[in-house]
Amino acid sequence: MKEPMTRAVLIVSLVMLVGAWMIADATRSISAYADSATHNTAEIATALTSFDNRLNDLNQSVHSVEKQIMNADEVAVYLGITDQVLSKLLEDKQLPAIQINGIYRFSKRAIDEWVYEKSKNKASYQNW
Fold first, then answer.
1. Among 69, 79, 71, 76, which residue's Cα sits nearest to residue 116?
2. Is residue 126 part of a domain?
3. Do 54 and 19 have their domain in common?
4. What is the pTM of this model?
5. Which among 39, 63, 87 is the end of a domain?
6. What is the DSSP string of 11-69?
7. How far apart are the C-alpha atoms of 80 and 86, rounded to whole Å?
8. Euclidean distance between CA atoms 47 and 69, whole angstroms
9. Residue 6 is inside which H or E element, if any?
10. Are 83 and 75 within 8 A, CB to CB?
11. How many domains does one find in the chain?
12. Most CB contacts within 10 A, which of 9, 71, 87, 122?
């Protein structure tokens, strides 16, 4: 249970560390240009553009980290079902879930495995 949270904290920490390094690197580059008698505005703009591109790439990689634990609303959207169908599945203990302080949480992996198993059995929940 703690592994996805630990992984997320590690990824966020790594992103912050890389971002701080990139800011420091850009600052040193800009300072070097400013101290140089031959500095050039175009070179500074290029360095800033490169820095901005690297930050954008880093931001996209952070957002691409897939969420491993979902709440009820997210699972309903993920499965393409209504809240009523989700409630019925939970009531019948058909869906893998845990309750934390009375709030259902769902492992994406467990949900994917549940869907796979149900699809092998050709289960149908259309009547709900």
1. 79
2. no
3. yes
4. 0.47
5. 63
6. HHHHHHHHHHHHHHHHHHHHHHHHHSTT--HHHHHHHHHHHHHHHHHHHHHHHTSPP-E
7. 10
8. 39
9. helix 2-35
10. no
11. 2
12. 87
Residue-range definition of the domain harbouring residue 15: 2-63
Q: Which amino acid is at 114?
A: W
What are 64-87's pLDDT values in tens digits? Answer: 556 789 999 999 999 999 999 999
CA dist., res. 50 & res. 37, Å (int) = 22
- Same domain for 101 and 76? yes
Q: How is the beta sheet containing 103-107 ordered, strand by strand?
A: 69-71, 103-107, 98-100
pLDDT tens digits for 28-75? Answer: 777 666 656 555 677 777 888 888 888 877 776 665 556 789 999 999
Q: Cα–Cα distance between 21 and 126 in angstroms, integer?
A: 53
